[in-house]
């Protein structure tokens, strides 16, 4: 017999009772009133609440409950009761204490790492592939509105004229612009907005180099790198938000991701793809592939301390780039012509920015 | 010389039931981490069951007079409420999208604002009904007897007054709502009362705000202690002509200790210590609430019905509403 306290669901009065355990049920009677009727509870009518090692509560479906603080009872009862019930991961953690909690935390962390590095990138690529092209255009417009850079009309006209001499193999309506800036940079927004800063145009010496630069940026657009990166970043932030349980933040991150797309950094993988696909574009247009190599050499020659290295830092190390570009050119030799149509606009551009 | 002498209440009726929180950071951390694991594995669908587990742990580790509170809500109930809440927000979202296409973004923004404000009182009402109905102690259920229409019209009246007074009425609004809500909470046959007064609350907060500014934030702890005291000391439990009064024994210095300790834990564990922080807070609250009066806790009778619709509670969760 074990001591316990009984309440009957009618009032909050507690009665001292003596409990007897059987294989599949238990019985109890008030200590002070021998004549009272015996209560008999089947285990399958009982909800077992393990509050801590030394305190349990048994709740009957219709006949009140018992509060028991007897370690011996708890041990015996759990053995009998667990035959009728499975064990839960929670009771394992509660029994195992802090050690089990940290083990679970470790498993959790491993799942997160796997999600972060494998599941999310894979899923995001799949999602990006499903998105229609109109999404690219809308995101591009939002980004452009957020950037609000003053476009140099004369230069942009010349750059557009230059670009029109080349077949870009693109589904998008490409728009080429020049922005006056001291920064050496060029970027492509989804939907086909390509911007070259005047300072970079000053560094460029030949029309092949300019063609290579544009080919690189157009490849970003053609392969939808921005949208793919955006999907990845979004999925990551959704994962983070799920864990933190903050649903409201998802919409906030949607918004900030759209407007700060300029800050998106293409991963090196995307940069490499743009380089190689850029070469392919040069080949189709019979432009000398060496232009790409020369472009890299110019970029590597820029004093990184003075020029803000936005263009350089997010890209693969230039030495490495030159290596794989040389290899690509060796593997895919191609004939080229002089492209006289490009001469006029290029010279005019150089005159404007020298 | 005249002496003022109040005789102590007879010993056999006067009592001080003890409030205690027995949870420990390690076990609670275990619960939270398993919850997180299952939520991730199920892509968030486990959330209602996780919430039920968490509440169950916190309730059953809170003891009044040696008996634990029990949370009898289930994941299934919370899940149903969750689905309904999601559907409601989805409907609101669709309405907004349609409106912003047809009537323009300004109209949509206004409708959004009104929509959210309109949902709030229903959520508070539903949440209270559900939460209290699923709370019990020695088998005696708590309950919330507030009338929905009454509460909603009270809420809108108070909200309107706060709006036209540019927020100055806020203290009165909060007190009037709290008086209504707590006044409608039942502990079996026991009835809670709250005696908050808008003017007192306003003055207290104004003083707290100004002194916190002047002392560069240091007075904030004492302000916090005052808010806590105002909440606790104005709460009473009445039962058949007898009464319990609640009293806060927390001082500003103790609040400073608690808050600083918790901040250190959070910073140095990069947030992982959240479980310990919450346990510290609950221990602190339980230790600093004193209950005294002449109610016999064994005499409370079962009076409250069961209420299983968790929709309001889930909406309140979405909107991050503080209940009571």
Automatic annotation (TrEMBL), chain A:
Cofactor stoichiometry and binding remark: Binds 1 zinc ion per subunit.
Residues passing through the membrane, by range: 100-124
GO biological process, one term: proteolysis involved in protein catabolic process
UniProt keyword terms in alphabetical order: Hydrolase, Membrane, Metal-binding, Metalloprotease, Protease, Transmembrane, Transmembrane helix, Zinc
Lineage: Bacteria, Pseudomonadati, Bacteroidota, Chitinophagia, Chitinophagales
Cofactor: Zn(2+)
One Gene Ontology cellular component: membrane
InterPro entries assigned to the protein according to its UniProt record, in alphabetical order: Mito/Outer_Membr_Metalloprot, Peptidase_M48
Entry similarity comment: Belongs to the peptidase M48 family.
The name this protein goes by in its record: Peptidase family M48
Keyword flag Magnesium: no
GO MF annotations in UniProt: metal ion binding; metalloendopeptidase activity
Residue stretches making up the Peptidase M48 domain: 160-327
Domain of life: Bacteria
From TrEMBL, chain B:
TM stretches of this protein: 28-49, 81-100, 106-124, 151-172, 209-232, 253-277
Highest rank taxon of the organism: Bacteria
Keywords linked to the UniProt accession: Membrane, Transmembrane, Transmembrane helix
A Pfam family assignment: DUF898
Keyword Transmembrane helix: yes
Protein name as annotated: Uncharacterized membrane protein YjgN, DUF898 family
Organism field: Chitinophaga terrae (ex Kim and Jung 2007)
């Amino acid at each position: 017999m074990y001591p316990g306290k009984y309440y009957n669901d009618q009032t909050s009065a507690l009665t001292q009772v003596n409990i007897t355990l059987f294989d599949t049920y238990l019985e109890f009677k008030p200590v002070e009133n021998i004549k009272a009727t015996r209560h008999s509870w089947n285990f399958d009518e009982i909800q077992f609440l393990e509050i801590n090692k030394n305190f349990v509560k048994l709740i009957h479906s219709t006949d009140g409950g018992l509060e028991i603080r007897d370690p011996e009872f708890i041990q015996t009862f759990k053995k009998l009761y667990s035959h009728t019930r499975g064990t839960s991961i929670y009771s394992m953690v509660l029994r195992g204490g802090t050690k089990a909690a940290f083990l679970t935390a470790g498993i959790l962390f491993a799942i997160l790492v796997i999600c972060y590095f494998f599941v999310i990138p894979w899923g995001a690529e799949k999602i990006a592939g499903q998105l229609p092209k109109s999404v690219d255009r809308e995101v591009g417009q939002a980004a452009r509105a957020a950037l609000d850079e003053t476009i140099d009309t004369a230069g942009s006209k010349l750059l557009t004229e230059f670009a029109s001499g080349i077949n870009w193999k693109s589904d998008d309506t490409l728009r080429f612009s020049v922005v006056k800036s001291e920064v050496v940079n060029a970027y492509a927004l989804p939907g086909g907005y390509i911007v070259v800063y005047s300072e970079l145009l000053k560094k460029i010496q030949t029309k092949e180099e300019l063609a290579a630069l544009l080919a690189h940026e157009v490849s970003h657009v053609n392969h939808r790198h921005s949208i793919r990166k955006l999907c990845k970043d979004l999925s990551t932030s959704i994962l983070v938000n799920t864990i933190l349980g903050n649903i409201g933040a998802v919409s906030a991150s949607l918004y900030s991701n759209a407007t700060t797309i300029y800050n998106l950094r293409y991963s090196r993988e995307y940069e490499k793809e743009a380089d190689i696909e850029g070469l392919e574009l040069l080949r189709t247009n019979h432009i000398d592939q060496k232009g790409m190599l020369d472009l890299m050499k110019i970029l590597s020659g820029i004093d990184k301390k003075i020029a803000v290295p936005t263009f350089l830092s997010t890209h693969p190390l230039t030495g490495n780039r030159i290596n794989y570009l040389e290899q690509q050119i060796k593997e895919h030799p191609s004939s080229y012509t002089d492209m006289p149509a490009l001469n006029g606009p290029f010279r005019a551009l150089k005159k404007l920015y020298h | 010389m005249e002496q003022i002498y109040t005789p102590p209440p007879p010993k056999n009726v006067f009592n001080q039931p003890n409030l205690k929180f027995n949870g420990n950071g390690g076990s609670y951390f275990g619960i939270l981490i398993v919850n997180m694991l299952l939520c991730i594995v199920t892509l968030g669908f486990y959330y209602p069951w996780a919430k039920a587990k968490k509440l169950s742990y916190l309730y059953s580790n809170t003891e009044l007079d040696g008996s634990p509170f029990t949370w009898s809500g289930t994941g299934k109930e919370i899940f149903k409420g969750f689905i309904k809440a999601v559907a409601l927000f989805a409907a609101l979202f669709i309405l907004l999208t349609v409106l912003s296409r047809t009537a323009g973004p300004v109209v949509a923004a206004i409708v959004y604002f009104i929509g959210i404000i309109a949902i709030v009182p229903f959520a508070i009402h539903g949440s209270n009904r559900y939460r209290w109905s699923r709370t019990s102690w020695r088998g005696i259920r708590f309950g919330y007897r507030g009338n929905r229409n009454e509460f909603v019209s009270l809420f809108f009246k108070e909200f309107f007054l706060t709006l036209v007074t540019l927020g100055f009425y806020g203290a009165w609004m909060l007190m009037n709502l709290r008086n209504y809500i707590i006044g409608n909470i039942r502990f079996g046959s026991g009835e809670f009362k709250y005696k908050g007064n808008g003017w007192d609350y306003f003055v207290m907060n104004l003083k707290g705000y100004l002194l916190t500014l002047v002392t560069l934030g240091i007075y904030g702890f004492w302000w916090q202690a005052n808010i806590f005291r105002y909440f606790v000391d104005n709460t009473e439990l009445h039962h058949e002509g007898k009464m319990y009064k609640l009293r806060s024994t927390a001082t500003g210095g103790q609040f400073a200790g608690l808050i600083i300790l918790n901040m250190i834990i959070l910073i140095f564990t990069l947030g992982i210590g959240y479980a310990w922080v919450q346990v510290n807070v609950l221990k602190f609250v339980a230790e600093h609430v004193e209950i005294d009066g002449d109610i016999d806790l064994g005499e409370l009778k079962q009076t409250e019905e069961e209420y299983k619709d968790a929709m309001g509670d889930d909406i309140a969760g979405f909107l991050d509403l503080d209940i009571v």
